[in-house]
Amino acid sequence: MEFSTKALPPEKDKTDCLVVGIFEGKKLSAAAKAVDDLTSKAITAVLRSGDITGKTGSCLMLRKLEGIPAQRLLLVGLGKEDEASLKSYREVLTSAFKAIAATQSVSASIHLTSDHHAGLDGESLLEHAVVIAEEISYKPPRPGMKVTKEEAVTLTKVTFAPPADTDAKSLTRGVLRGTAIAHGQNLARDLGNLPPNICTPSYLAQAAKNLGRSHKLKVTVLEEAHMRKLGMHTLLAVSQGSRQAPKFIVLEYNGGGKKKPIALVGKGITFDTGGISIKSASEMDEMKYDMCGAASVLGTLQTVAELKLPLNVVGVIPSCENMPDGQATRPGDIVTSMSGKTVEILNTDAEGRLILCDALTYTERFKPDAVVDIATLTGACVVALGSVASGLFSNQDSLADELLEAGVSAHDRAWHMPIWDDYQPMLKTNFADIQNIGGRMAGAITAACFLARFAESYHWAHLDIAGTAWKGGGDKGATGRPVGLLAHFLMGRAAK
Ligand code: BES
Ligand code: MN
Ligand code: ZN
Fold first, then answer.
1. Is 378 helix (H, G, I), strand (E, B) or coil?
2. Ligand 1 binding site (Cβ under 6 Å of any ligand atom)
3. What global pTM score does this model have?
4. Which residues fall within 8 angstroms of residue 82, CB to CB, at 6 or more apart?
5. CATH of domain 185-495
6. Candidate list 26, 80, 279, 341, residue with the active-site label
7. Is the pLDDT of residue 259 over 90?
């Protein structure tokens, strides 16, 4: 999709779809007023009919109005003028792009960016508009399927009317930021949506190498023998029931000279059957999304590289499959992690923490300024927070605050949860240093507390994205979260 911020006046704009806003209470925005005057009050007449009232996100598509050269005019409700927020702004743009996508429009001129203020600067307004445009036009990969004629016609040229008081540089920066974030999210969505027979650990390793080649990242892939030599026995315990070779993927983005790096560690289970502690059949297909943490690391690195942020960022992705088999780990097995701590594996379905603990130990070698792991870790987190917020856990409050704020500004929010020592006794066992499950209560917290034991040597945060990384049901698909949050976090670090 191509974006520009040079809107033509409506009397000259031959766009396929001209989009203007109406405030609740039937008040015309500035752009709507201009179009109304050109069309002998066509909008006023529609408002009088009651077909649109201005409620946030309501839409009405009109065709070929006398007085303007545009093929279509889309009226979009902006809500109450004095109640504009980032949330309502995003709702407005989302419905507008959905309404455009339902037509055969190839070009659109959006005047909502200039008439809805949401208390944000122009740069951010454009960033969000671009991100939403790309999100609505996103189509998942469909291996083996052909694109139909109608599907081939998509929106490709979008013009945004520039928000008030925004200089040319900020306009360009807003579009650039939005585009880079959208590209990162699209990569994360594509990898998440691919079927698990295609998106294997080897496929993720190849995707990392491709990203490295196109965006000048150093990419290293460790094979099983190397992992064994490093002592990654908790990771290998998860992998040993699978025919797929495990891969340990490391990506290094170097844009910050001698600065200490920020490390992103992503859970890359390409399919989670539960192993011998096997899951029930219903919705098990969704466990192809158990690599969405890994996908968000790749996506975020793409965004960071596109924005050329003055930072050093390391991506660490432990990747394997969790399968039941004659060689698979049994409940009760005890293994020694790379850190030297012994782990009693009481439930083979609590595998995410087993691959992450070795990855967290490995990450120490980068002497990171901060480490953030991202994982579809627990069903308990979905019970606690649903699909609205990711669970956030940290051993440093200021790091947690930075991530919370990044989530708000990207509208990709997280909620701070505790990892107090008081929970640690739930992981006690008579036979090893730690057990891999904590019992029925506080499942998201005990999982985070397990990880915390392997992250004691640096500032660390953990994002449990089990409820936010994908949608189930009829709307099934990866969301691209939390690439937005992570990108905003890193942009914040870069500005420091
Ligand atoms: N990948 C799952 C977590 C998950 C489950 C995410 C459902 C989204 C939806 C993880 O590996 C897992 O199976 N966790 C177990 C942990 C339990 C055995 C302590 C869970 O949440 O049930
Ligand atoms: Mn599991
Ligand atoms: Zn899992």
1. coil
2. 272, 290, 347, 349-352, 376-380, 382, 437, 443, 466
3. 0.98
4. none
5. 3.40.630.10
6. 279
7. yes
